[in-house]
Amino acid sequence: MSKQEEIIYGLNPVIEAMRGTRQVYELYVAGTSADKRMERLLKLAAERKVPVRQRDKQDLSRLCGTDHHQGIALKVEPYHYVDFEDLIEKAKSEPDPLILLLDSVQDPHNLGALIRSAACAGAHGVVIPKDRAAGVTAAVDKASAGATETIAVAQVTNLSQALEALKAAGFWIYGADGSARGTIYQQNLSGPVALVIGGEGGGIRPLVRKGCDEIVSIPMQGGVNSLNASVAGGIMLFEVVRQRLSSKK
Predict the structure, then answer these.
(1) DSSP class of residue 147?
(2) Residues 239, 158, 165, CA angle at the centre, nearest 5°?
(3) pLDDT tens series, the chain, 249 aa
């Protein structure tokens, strides 16, 4: 397969890709199904004039590099990252913009889950580093249930510089760290907000931490002293949502 093509798999990711803006080349299907979502997918393929190829499950597993393809795979052009400056400008044009930044999240499943949570929370974009971090791949697309096709994701060379650009654009930056005395629930999360979630194990790196306006924690009860990165990100995102919905009552 050329660098101009990649395979994504799983019913929801493939449906979202078919609805999205990426160029689509071929749809691969193992067997037949009366499932309504499969009917919807085949209808989308017909509307976009995408060739449908029958493959057995073993062939799809080899093509996808995994057995977790649900009998569906799609050949598409590579994922399009948005320009970071364009992301800021577009977010600034919206009321109360919200952006999620991820510092060295390396697990594709965590990245997919965080992108999905950001999309569900109505965030305007996700920012990830180009180096020493997971990028958007088929595994991330599957873990996000196709949310990578519905929210802007930007890659940046330097996350600390990205924080400075967000500050200059009027964003207030909140970093998550379990050792912080102040909690996310004590903050006023109105206005332009950017949330920073650290990677697995190491958390937010010192230089990135220094670029945050506030370092906050999520109160913990019980014997475990830390949360999975994707869970922490989901809690932070939806505290922003909760406060903003409450303010509209």
Answers:
(1) G
(2) 60
(3) 556 789 999 989 999 999 988 899 999 998 666 677 788 888 889 999 999 998 888 999 999 999 989 889 999 999 999 999 999 999 999 889 999 999 999 999 999 999 999 999 999 999 999 998 999 999 999 999 999 999 999 999 999 999 999 999 999 999 999 889 999 999 999 999 999 999 887 889 999 999 999 999 999 887 666 789 999 999 999 999 999 998 877
In order of start, what are the domains of the chain with their CATH numbers? 6-76 (3.30.1330.30), 84-247 (3.40.1280.10)
Total-model pTM: 0.91
The answer to whether 194 and 163 have CB atoms below 8 angstroms apart is yes
- CB atoms under 10 Å from CB of 167, counted, come to 16
Residues 6+ apart with CB under 8 A from 183: 216, 217, 218, 219
Cα Rg of the chain, angstroms: 19
Q: What angle do CA 172, 153, 241 make, to 5 degrees?
A: 45
Angle at the Cα of 200 (from 168 to 188), degrees rounded to 5? 40
Tell me which H or E stretch contains 16: helix 11-19
Answer yes or no: are the C-beta atoms of 85 and 127 closer than 8 Å.
no
Q: Are 193 and 98 in contact (CB under 8 A)?
A: yes
Interacting residues of 150 by C-beta distance below 8 A, sequence separation 6+: 16, 20, 119
CA distance 129 to 240: 23
Residue with tokens 């950001």: 118
Distance CA 115, CA 163 (A): 19
Q: Which of 123, 136, 100 is nearest to 22 (CA)?
A: 136
